[in-house]
């Protein structure tokens, strides 16, 4: 890429980010006016335990959307586990753990649909027609796939890794979701899903001229607080710097006691100059609802020890009911399995209906 092309590419993506943000604000208003116009799809890979980054970043937002009356679908993306690993790991335990986290956080299985990839054949079958609608070059250009490949440190890219944005398009399109709450890094996947929906219509026409087979999903960019791990680095399970939802109050206290801070006794909220201290203030703020600046002022020159004690207390207090529900849920595996089975039944009914429309459009309905 030449320098000017480079500049062009980054300015276009700035412009499209600004557009996505503006559109997200419009969607947010439209939800308040009429939540029944929307169906949300979100999901997680069952690769480990959920931590505070997941909770404050996505889980809490899903519960809010559900409680505002939006039809919410939550996918346990079990086939996506093997995009970048050789095996599925302790998959059963992780899937059930994820379902328990969802329910404990407030996802209500009566109103929302919790389901998993491998139980919904119709969803996965969409992969075939969808793969015919994208080119190999296009897949290689996907910036998120590129970034994820770089993070795997020279590991060979599998066909599933290369094509997972198409599988993700199937996740979104099969259930006719029109909004997908995402972080910025997932925007290219949404664009891919929209392109597939458009190309499908263009190539196969519409059975009903007023009704495209697929909806055009849009991103709902959420204001996600940038939380760091307790060592001040990017929060990630592999760095051991996270606080998991399922940890005990004592474990939480122990981890926070070891959290990195700085030598300045006076506590101030300064995310750029004092990232570690500010991150702890942010955690206290997110769990108590009080502004980080106000918390800092209250602690004053009592130092990092006092700050850690306060964060520990407010986090443990906020998480206590969630943790209690989670423990109860995990003790009742049959209930978790029943929730998943009910969600999968709904997802299969929808997938079969969508697949019938796809076969109809493709004149494969013999
Ligand atoms: N890629 C998402 C993650 O790693 C999980 C996911 C799978 C997803 N399919 C999706 C998210 C469809 C949104 C829409 O967390």
Automatic annotation (TrEMBL):
Keyword Lipoprotein appears in the UniProt entry: no
Family annotation (Pfam families): tRNA-synt_1b
Protein name from the UniProt record: Tryptophan--tRNA ligase
E.C. code: 6.1.1.2
Protein's organism: Schaalia georgiae F0490
Record PANTHER family: TRYPTOPHAN--TRNA LIGASE, MITOCHONDRIAL
InterPro entries recorded: aa-tRNA-synth_I_CS, aa-tRNA-synth_Ic, Rossmann-like_a/b/a_fold, Trp-tRNA-ligase, Trp-tRNA_synthetase
Record keyword Aminoacyl-tRNA synthetase present: yes
One Gene Ontology term from the biological process aspect of the record: tryptophanyl-tRNA aminoacylation
Catalytic activity: tRNA(Trp) + L-tryptophan + ATP = L-tryptophyl-tRNA(Trp) + AMP + diphosphate + H(+)
